């Protein structure tokens, strides 16, 4: 059930009193606190189990408030804000006077965005300030895309949950570092690289997303309880059946090319052919396979164009550190 006006007022009061509100956005649900209240912000880190050096995104009601939260905003950042806000784009800028260091993990930069969700925007207007909010999940695990995901994962640790239905985008915002002369993508997300490049008129650097990692340096993120193993799309069925035969409870992300195939595995998710639908469903699929008792998830990466770039990034990070490809 979607939050009404009374719920919005109540949630704004909870924020004013230093409490935590889970709020829907178009990407994922956030765990929000008054960005200007260091004690409330500290509780966000505590509830998430997140290291305090890991900065939060400050959510604001509109680009017209940007000057309160960021300083020396470059023209390119203004252009991106004008084009993509409200929307799944986060801009990293120089920290403004209203942002305490607690919210930025001690950094002199701040991540800011205007979410494109009527409930989030209503809350931000009613509250009147900035809401510091990471995704409303425990550190390292799968982000929530429904209010029930939040309740199941955080329970009483949240003072109020605003229900805004299922998130329409399903993966987090794209984070762009706009502090320097040339913007760069820090995290692929809901606004595609292609859309950003079309507005900027030049190619953008994207962080390396190779699956080859030094063990221990990259703890897995966006990760379900089940181990995620990535294989070539053509090998998904064979690898899944082999692992099932070896005694695993295998969950399969069945690529569209195998649609309708009978797979001898514990649970099968049919991956949507449209990247919009895949992004929207991704975190729900991971949660579902956990719930169905899978200990291993076999998946492949989509083509890394459009939203496929963010989906592949999340799957790689869910698969976590590995010694070799
Ligand atoms: O879609 C989203 O972005 C969601 C919704 C709730 O808005 N939020 C979200 O927050 O994904 P979180 O905390 O789960 O991820 C935010 C990322 C973190 O990886 C953090 O390191 C990065 O943003 N970040 C925040 N401030 C930063 C800064 N000043 N410089 C570089 N990275 C920053
Ligand atoms: Mg997160």
TrEMBL record:
Catalytic class of the enzyme: transferase
Name of protein: Threonylcarbamoyl-AMP synthase
Catalysed conversion reaction: L-threonine + hydrogencarbonate + ATP = L-threonylcarbamoyladenylate + diphosphate + H2O
One of the protein's GO biological processes: tRNA processing
Family annotation (NCBIfam families): L-threonylcarbamoyladenylate synthase
Subcellular location: Cytoplasm
Alphabetic keyword roster: ATP-binding, Cytoplasm, Nucleotide-binding, Nucleotidyltransferase, Transferase, tRNA processing
Residues involved in L-threonine binding: 27, 113, 133, 173
Pfam families cross-referenced by the UniProt entry: Sua5_C, Sua5_yciO_yrdC
Chief localisation class: cytoplasm
EC numbers for this chain: 2.7.7.87
Limits of the YrdC-like domain: 5-191
Residues that coordinate or bind ATP: 50, 59, 109, 135, 143, 187, 222
PROSITE patterns: YRDC
């Amino acid at each position: 059930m979607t939050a009404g006006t009374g719920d919005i007022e109540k949630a704004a009061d909870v924020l004013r009193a230093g409490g935590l509100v889970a709020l829907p956005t178009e990407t994922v649900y956030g765990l929000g606190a008054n960005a200007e209240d260091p004690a409330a912000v500290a509780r966000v880190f505590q509830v998430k189990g997140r290291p305090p050096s890991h900065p939060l995104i400050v959510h604001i009601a509109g680009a017209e408030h940007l000057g309160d939260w960021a300083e020396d905003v470059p023209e390119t950042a203004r252009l991106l804000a004008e084009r993509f806000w409200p929307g799944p784009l986060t801009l990293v800028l120089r920290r403004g006077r209203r942002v305490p260091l607690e919210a930025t993990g001690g950094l002199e930069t701040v991540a800011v965005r205007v979410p494109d969700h009527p409930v989030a925007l209503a809350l931000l207007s009613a509250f009147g300030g900035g809401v510091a909010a990471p995704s409303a999940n425990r550190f390292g695990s799968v982000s929530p895309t429904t209010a029930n995901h939040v309740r199941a994962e955080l329970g009483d640790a949240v003072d109020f949950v605003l229900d805004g239905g299922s998130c329409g985008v399903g993966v987090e915002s794209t984070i762009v570092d706009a502090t320097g002369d040339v913007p760069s993508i820090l995290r692929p997300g809901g606004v595609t690289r292609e859309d950003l490049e079309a507005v900027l008129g030049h190619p953008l650097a994207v962080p390396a997303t190779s699956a080859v990692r030094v063990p221990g340096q990259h703890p897995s993120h966006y990760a379900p309880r089940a181990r995620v193993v990535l294989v070539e799309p053509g090998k998904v069925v064979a690898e899944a059946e082999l692992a099932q035969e070896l005694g695993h409870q295998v969950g399969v992300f069945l690529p569209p090319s195998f649609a309708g195939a009978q797979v001898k595995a514990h649970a099968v998710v049919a991956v949507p052919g449209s990247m919009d639908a895949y992004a929207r469903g991704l975190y729900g699929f991971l949660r579902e396979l956990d719930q169905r008792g899978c200990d291993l998830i076999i998946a492949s990466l989509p083509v890394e164009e459009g939203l496929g770039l963010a989906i592949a990034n999340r799957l790689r990070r869910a698969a976590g550190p590995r010694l070799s490809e």
